[in-house]
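Much of what follows relies on a compact textual record of a protein's fold. With that in mind, consider the following protein and its fold in token form.
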Amino acid sequence: MAAAAAPPVAKKVPRQLVEHGDVRVDNYYWLRDDSRSDPDVLAHLRAENDYTAAVMSDVKQLEDEIYAQIRGRIKEDDIDAPLHKGQYYYYERTLTGKEYVQHCRRPVPTDAPITVHDVMPSGPDAPEEHIILDENVKAQGHDYYSIGAFKVSPNNKLVAYAEDTKGDEIYTVYVIDAESGVYVGQPLKGITSDIEWAGDNHLVYITMDSILRPDKVWLHKLGSDQSSDACLYHEKDDTFSLGLQASESKRYLFVESGSKNTSFIFYLDISKQNKELAVLTPRVYGIDTTASHRGNHFFIKRRSDEFYNSELVACPLDNVVETTILLPHRESVKIQDFQLFDNHIAVYERENGLPKVTVYRLPAIGESIGQLQGGRALDFIDPTYSVDPEESQFHSSVLRFHYSSMRTPPSVYDYDMDSGVSVLKKIHTVLGGFDASNYVTERKWATAADGTQIPMSILYRKDLVKLDGSDPMLLYGYGSYEICIDPSFRGSRFSLVDRGFIYVRAHIRGGGEMGRKWYEDGKLLKKKNTFTDFIDCAEYLIKNKYCSKEKLCIDGRSAGGLLMGAVLNMRPDLFRAAVAGVPFVDVVTTMLDPTIPLTTAEWEEWGDPRKEEYYYYMKSYSPVDNVTAQEYPNILVTAGLNDPCVMYSEPAKYVAKLRELKRDDNLLLFKCELAAGHSSKSGRFEKLQEDAFTYAFILKALGMTRKLASL
């Protein structure tokens, strides 16, 4: 039988790691090969992949059925909501059977202003569609292909796009003629996906240092050689990284230099011949700023220890130190983002763990500006949901936003900020008989050990669950970097939900769902709150008959993979199966090595273990350092060989140590994609195949492989 295949046993090459007089022995350090070419390492990874394939071979038919179900829900030939930009509608098109998108545009037939009722003409009499770039053509010959940026020049004649063909997130930028597709000049190599036009003849871009830290911002003149580009700024502090964005008005570019708790901003006036950076906000430890522009003011979101949920201020272009408060700091409301328009501002906030969007009318340009009054909040129908800004047009009164919930497919709305009218421009088509009314979404709160209330978002199919403790469950968590893991839609998830699963997202501390303090209470020397919150959510769900420990499966990726590793060491009895995707599990060793990408920038998130207090705290939860001789549930671990965020060797070492020490016969599978990075494979159907594989593993672990849904 397939299950009788022998698991790979990694050889032991003991290496002593000494810090603060403490000795750790790492028998599997040899699995780290920065060149990713060592024959022994690659042979071990291939052996793990072969073992995984052998063990899963008895559910390959189930995996294929799940994949067919998932793919069957997708309308393969489709377009997204066209964006009216200048003289064109821009949009992306997908084609039947094709992995990647086409970037298209179509001329706007009239000069009418943009309204919520604007519809791109189609049919035989409509202006002809033009395919600017077909990713399917560009991807030929590559195992991995991803475009990280696609930027149209202000005059709509050129396009700059950033291409990654390995998954290492090191991009090459090409400039093409938007009509002919002919390359303009030579490509820019070794850069991030942060690129912006500075007029029609210049690009601004960012490069990285040897540890892949974005550290230099450059000005490139079209037609010139990259070697002659001007460096506008070099950030030498290795805890800071650079970012780049354009104002909605397209008059200014903003260069942000930021660490995990401090950021400051330079601006570049695109209209000036002499393109140099000027300071907008100063470098002050503990103060975080982001900025945009309208009329004769810069608008700045500013966070500090005192104003931890941020305030919104404005300052004149000619006197950036003279700030006026537009929205004050509030303890219960966190300002997340904002979008500017000619006459309006849309503010994205969080209140009680849910997203909130409020639109304010601004005084005429040139008039004095004061505290914002009389805002209009948008209404959303689901008890838990996700809402995010979409690109909108500055010279309009139309706000475009993206909405979904765990039962509402991804939807794009245009909202008239004058009248308050919303128009649905696009809802993601879900085939296969999907009916949102069959599903229930709920919001529940678990009580943590310290009394904190932890929100959870819950999805299930109302005609399939019993809610008596017998239902299978997949519980997902993340809880890091102040990232909000809002309850959004994912079509593949219904291959579990339609088999009677309850799906839950635990909005644990370390994320940003409940405000800045929520994040600060789940990082550094409070990181264990993230793990205990997740355990407390699991115990709440068991106690309240949503599931039992015999049917509770858990899932997390990246920093969520750290969460998986930590809770599996702490409470292996609580779960039946776990999926740890590209997991950050070798915390202490990685954070002690500043030559590893991201380490220096991460010290303000996890702590700097060169300091004794942080070393011992991190060692007390680091998954690799806490694997012990105990029984573990069924575990699937994944990795990408070219991953620049979590080195493949971390999950490889974690699995090797688990194989050595665990005292059970449960599944332990490791799947390392040899031509992928942090986000795994790049094609849209390839990603669905990974979902199908993961779900087949979960069903196998639960003994549900014979319970095939006909849905």
